[in-house]
Amino acid sequence: MEEPKETLWRYMPFAQLVRMLQTQKLWVSHVSSFEDKLEGTLDFTHWKINPDVRKDAIENLISAFSNTYVSCWHSASSESLAMWRLYGGQGFSVAVQTEWMRLARTIEGVLDYKTDSIGIIGAVNYVNPFDGSPVEKTKPNPLVIPMGVRNLSAPYYFQYLMRKSSAFAYEKEFRAVFDLKGQEGRGVEVPFKPEYLITCVYVSPEADDWMIETVKELVHQQFGLTHIDVRRSDISPHFRGHNA
In the 3-class helix/strand/coil scheme, how is 79-139 assigned residue by residue? Predict the structure, then answer.
C-alpha cells in the first residue's frame, strides 16, 4: 500500500496554541459535532434502496458512531490563505505543522491502553454527492493503525468517514478516525507531546513583528520547545510587500 507523504497543517487562533502547550492536550471532535450533517452517511443518500431501509441503516450507523472521534488536519505542501481566513482569523493566529506519521503515533499513544481500540488515518476522498463518483483521482485507502489487540480490523463504518462531498474539497482534509469510550460531548482533549507532534509554527501573514516575537517567546522560552521552528508566514509579502 502506498504511504501518504502529506505535510499536515492545523490553523487556529493564537489562544488555542497557548492552551495546547499549557495543557499538552489536543482537541479531537466527536462525529456528531460536524457542520456537515451528511458526514459519515453521504453514501446512503444516493443508494437506490427502500427509504425505510435507508432510514434504518443511517440510524444504525449514527449509533455506531457514538464513540467515534476525529482529528482533522489540512493536507498541503504549502500554506493556504483560505485556511488562514477560515480557521485562523486575522492577525492573532498561527498554523501548527506536522507530519502524518507523527499524528498517527500520537493518536496510537492515546488509545494504546484500550485493548479493543483501533483507528485509521489517511486522506479524505471527495465524491459527487449525487452518485458517489469520485471528483478527482482517488487517493490511497486510509492506513489502518493497529491499536490494542493487534488482530482487530478497523470497523467498517470508519471508511464512511473518509468520504466527503465535493463541496468540501477545498479543505484537502487528512484525518485520523478512532473510538474513545466513556467520553461525552462535542469533543475531548487528549494528551500529546508538543515536542514530538509539532514540527513548526507559522504566524499569520498579517501579524505585526511583535506577535512573531511573542510566539517565539512562548514556544522557545516559556515552554522550552527550542527545536520547534517559529516563523512568519511565507505568504506575508502579499500583505506586507517585498520587505516582509
Answer: CCHHHHHHHHCCCCEEEEEEEHHHHHHHHHHHHCCCCCCCEEEEECEEECCCCCCECCCCC
pLDDT confidence of residue 204: 93
pLDDT confidence of residue 144: 63
Cβ distance 29 to 178 under 8 Å? no
SS3 for 75?
A: strand
Residue 28 cell numbers, joined: 479531537
Most confident of 118-127, 145-154, 185-194: 185-194
HSE-CB at 127 with a 13 A cutoff on CA atoms is: 25
Under 8 Å between Cβ of 42 and 151: no
Q: What is the number of residues in the chain?
A: 244
* The pLDDT of residue 2: 47
38 in a domain, yes or no? yes
The reply to whether the predicted model has a pTM over 0.85 is yes
Residue type for position 211: M
Helix (H) or strand (E) run with residue 13 in it:
strand 7-13
Of 7, 9, 22, the closest CA to residue 202 belongs to: 9
**151: domain range?**
7-240
Mean pLDDT, the chain, whole residue set? 84
Q: How many CA atoms lie within 13 A of 23 on its CB side?
A: 13
Q: Is residue 192 part of a domain?
A: yes
In this structure, is residue 209 part of a structural domain?
yes
The type of residue at 50 is N
Tally the domains of the chain.
1
In the predicted structure, residue 197 carries a pLDDT above the cut 90: yes
